[in-house]
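In the design runs reported in the main text, the only information available to the sequence generator was the tokenized backbone. The following block is the verbatim input for one such run; it is reproduced so that readers can re-run the procedure and compare outputs position by position.
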């Protein structure tokens, strides 16, 4: 799904408030979607629509996850966790794709840092399991096949086979890990980019990977950022000091890291058909894994 296709889906959605009493259909057949501000294009296409944010799911099979994400927002609100709030109780469906609506946050006062993430994770990791719905396990490798399928012929079949082999090796190893921390609710993609620092402080965003699993999943993300994405070691140390634990001290860290690296490569692959920079980054990442080099720098694209 590229930006143009995402806008087509957005135009087909009956979004409340976008065209007066008639909804989206009253606004020139959804022509307002062409003017929506594209905020990001990743697992979802995210658009700004005045005081709302619309997230268009990349694939129809993401509907169940979108439903859970909206339910999660209500659960976190009830628990008093600073997190993004849903504007509608259920996802919309347009041409088979889920579209969720969210209240737009006030402009950020500064970029989020690892130190903003630690207290939010402490709060989340203290939560009991939610009532009324079930959090799934963190299927870190669950999207690999879908992402490689979306990549199609844009990537080398040998690279796709290599990532499938890694997935099949890491999946049972991850399932056998003995955690240091008590398992329970986790964010699942705990990075500063998923924190918005507004006038009232840090707020958690992007709830789609929320799970119930090893808390170490949330901590290995920043450890990988330190080694692969250029995170300042001092910022990482401040995060671990605030959280109270450095996941690198856990003997299962290498397994979770390897699984996450495999998933990250496959995630980039889905963008390769329409983005030459994504293809180049995918090839860089796969080459570093083939070479067994844990410090080759990875980049956004």
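Verbatim output:
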């Amino acid at each position: 799904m590229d930006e143009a296709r995402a806008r087509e889906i957005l135009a087909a959605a009956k979004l409340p408030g976008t065209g007066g009493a008639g909804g989206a259909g009253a606004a020139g057949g959804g022509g307002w979607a062409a003017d929506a501000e594209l905020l990001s294009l990743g697992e979802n296409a995210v658009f700004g629509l005045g005081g709302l944010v619309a997230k268009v799911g990349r694939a129809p099979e993401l509907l169940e996850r979108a439903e859970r994400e909206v339910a999660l927002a209500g659960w976190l609100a009830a628990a008093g966790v600073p997190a993004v709030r849903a504007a509608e109780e259920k996802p919309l469906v347009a041409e088979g794709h889920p579209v969720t609506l969210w209240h737009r946050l006030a402009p950020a006062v500064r970029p989020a840092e690892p130190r903003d993430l630690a207290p939010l994770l402490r709060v989340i990791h203290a939560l009991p399991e939610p009532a009324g719905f079930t959090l799934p396990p963190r299927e870190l490798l669950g999207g690999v096949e879908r992402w490689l399928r979306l990549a199609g012929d844009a990537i080398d079949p040998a690279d796709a086979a290599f990532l499938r082999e890694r997935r099949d090796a890491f999946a049972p190893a991850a399932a056998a890990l003995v955690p240091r921390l008590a398992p329970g609710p986790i964010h699942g993609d705990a990075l500063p980019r998923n924190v918005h620092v507004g006038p009232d402080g840090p707020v958690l965003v992007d709830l789609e990977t929320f799970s119930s699993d090893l808390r170490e999943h949330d901590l290995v993300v920043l450890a990988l950022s330190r080694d692969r994405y250029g995170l300042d070691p001092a910022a990482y140390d401040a995060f671990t000091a605030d959280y109270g634990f450095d996941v690198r001290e856990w003997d299962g860290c290498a397994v979770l890291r390897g699984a996450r690296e495999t998933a990250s490569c496959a995630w980039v692959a889905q963008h390769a058909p329409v983005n030459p920079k994504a293809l180049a980054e995918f090839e860089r990442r796969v080459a570093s894994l083939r070479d067994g080099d844990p410090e080759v720098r990875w980049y956004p694209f």
